[in-house]
């Protein structure tokens, strides 16, 4: 039985892997690297995504487009009979925060269609949000175009060496 469900939102495929919208899934990959080589992703067709497990934690990366994430997450919640929605952590990009900033709370964003899909599909907003700031715009770009842009190599270096380690430490302090 799993106590926690940790979900990283994003879009499927290599085309989107390093885009700002996929920072939630990138963070899950970082977690698994930190936990060790024995923790691996496994595709589950019936759940429409990838799972990995570690002790009493179930990690999940939906293999759906961001705005359809709720369908896959509802399948996971149902399949594993997860009743305590408050033990679900939803990790996603936050365009309302500057790059490098993050928040962990139970407040959902004003506009984020992936999060809205999850709320509607599981009929709850009681999950914990891990919102990772992605706004590093130096020119005017529409949000929908910006979230699908890739991180620069310098931004990826900052994410992996500074941001993700801080979020990782805070995250694990919450579940211990």
Task: Describe the protein's architecture and organization.
With 176 residues, this protein is an alpha/beta fold. It has a single domain, classed as Peptidyl-tRNA hydrolase (Rossmann fold, 3-Layer(aba) Sandwich), CATH 3.40.50. Helices cover 35% and strands 24% of the residues. It contains five helices and seven strands; from the N terminus they run βαβββαββαβαα. It has helices spanning 23-35, 69-79, 113-122, 143-146, 153-175, and strands at 4-8, 42-44, 49-54, 57-62, 88-98, 102-105, 128-135. It has a seven-stranded mixed sheet, sandwiched between helices. It is globular and about 45 Å long. The chain starts with a strand and ends with a helix. The model has no long low-confidence stretch (mean pLDDT 92).
Key words describing this protein structure:
Rossmann fold, 176 residues, 24% strand, globular, 35% helix, seven-stranded mixed β-sheet, alpha/beta, single chain
**Average pLDDT, all residues:** 92
Number of helices: 5
Uncertain regions spanning at least 5 consecutive residues: none
The tally of domains stands at 1
What helical percentage do the residues reach?
Answer: 25-40%
Distance, first to last CA: 16 Å
CATH homologous superfamily title: Peptidyl-tRNA hydrolase
- Shape verdict: globular
- Spatial strand arrangement across the major sheet: 2-3-4-1-5-7-6
Largest sheet: 7 strands, mixed
Give the ordered list of helices and strands: EHEEEHEEHEHH
Tell me how many strands there are: 7
């Amino acid at each position: 039985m799993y106590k926690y469900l940790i979900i990283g939102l994003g879009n499927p495929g290599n085309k989107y892997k390093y885009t700002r919208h996929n920072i939630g899934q990138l963070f899950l990959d970082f977690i698994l690297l930190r936990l060790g080589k024995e923790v691996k992703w496994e595709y589950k067709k019936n759940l429409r995504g990838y799972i990995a497990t570690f002790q009493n934690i179930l990690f999940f990366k939906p293999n759906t487009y961001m705005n359809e994430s709720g369908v896959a997450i509802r399948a996971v919640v149902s399949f594993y009979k997860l009743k305590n929605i408050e033990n679900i952590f939803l990790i996603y990009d936050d365009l309302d925060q500057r790059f490098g900033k993050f928040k962990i709370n139970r407040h959902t964003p004003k506009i984020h269609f992936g999060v809205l899909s999850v709320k509607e599909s599981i009929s709850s907003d009681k999950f914990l949000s891990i919102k990772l700031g992605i706004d590093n715009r130096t020119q005017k770009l529409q949000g929908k175009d910006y979230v699908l842009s890739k991180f620069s190599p310098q931004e990826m270096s900052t994410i992996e060496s500074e941001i993700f380690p801080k979020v990782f430490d805070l995250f694990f302090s919450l579940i211990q």
